[in-house]
Amino acid sequence: MMTYDLNDKVVLITGAAGGIGAATARELYARGASLVLTDMQQTAVDTLAAEFTPSRVLPVALDVTDAAATKAVVQQTIQRFGRLDVVFANAGISWRSGASTITNCDEAEFEKIVEVDLLGVWRTVRAALPEIIRNKGQVLVTSSAYAFLNGMANAPYAASKAGVEMLTRCLRAEFAYTGATASVVYPGWTATAIAKVAFGGNATVTKMNEVGFPGWLRRAIPPEQVARAVAKGMQYRRPRIYAPWRWVPFSLFRGLFGVLTDAMLSRHREMHALIQQLEAESKHG
Ligand SMILES: NC(=O)c1ccc[n+]([C@@H]2O[C@H](COP(=O)([O-])OP(=O)(O)OC[C@H]3O[C@@H](n4cnc5c(N)ncnc54)[C@H](O)[C@@H]3O)[C@@H](O)[C@H]2O)c1
What we know:
Blueprint lengths: L9 E5 L4 H12 L3 E6 L2 H8 L7 E5 L5 H15 L4 E4 L17 H28 L3 E5 L12 H20 L6 E7 L15 H10 L2 H4 L4 H13 L4 E4 L4 H5 L1 H14 L1 H13 L4
Parallel strand pairs: 1-2, 1-4, 2-3, 4-5, 5-6, 6-7
The protein binds nicotinamide-adenine-dinucleotide.
The site of nicotinamide-adenine-dinucleotide has 28 residues, from helix 1 and helix 4.
């Protein structure tokens, strides 16, 4: 099977200044790709871009919820590099602080998470599609193990991650005839800013994590491990890219696993007490 050579390919990354985005940028650059680095703050992408040869990098501020701005960045990419081969729709957010349940979360914050994590991905992918198809390139979308885990206390995030997983599967099937491909990236817990809440950032959420998962499963991996998996997945145009591999059986047997864990969670007294504690700590609605 012919592998996809990243040398001289142009890759646009959203959320590039974050943990997984920056690690992936470095990995792809080392494999010869030119990069369009986008994130909320220009200074953040400028700092990352300073690590690379100027002729192979374009740092641009981009909020992925802005559909027009996303299309403009694709045009800027074409003006600068003449093409766009790969889009990595990776930007994501979770609760600003702590965590909330569906019952007592702030409504605007719930919808903002869905706007970034689901609609932001759709807007990024849609803007890039004409170029990706023209170049028989690739779409990569960062989903999460939350696409197949019960996402309690993280509902807008988990719902969005399940949503982008399906969006990507649909896309892969719909444009298979063009020669382009789409891949879902499933990171498990990774040591970046977004995951801090579950690793000491919030005591109740950390406790829920400890009660809900065995230690070997919830151990966070470095973002570089996700980056290597993404680069390898791109090379083989894999439909599913997991990091770490320990999540693979849970994804593959998600039907049975979901039935069992949902039943367990509905009877788990200690977890119910923690949920109540969380609600008491973060009263909104
Ligand atoms: N860290 C984990 O445990 C983990 C696990 C599974 C999936 N993920 C996903 O990986 C992706 C990258 O996250 P990370 O772990 O590197 O976290 P991170 O917080 O370090 O990076 C996220 C980046 O997205 C950017 N961003 C946020 N809102 C944006 C917007 N509207 N427009 C553009 N950029 C925006 C942030 O500025 C930040 O740089 C996210 O989609 C996240 O949901 C992370």
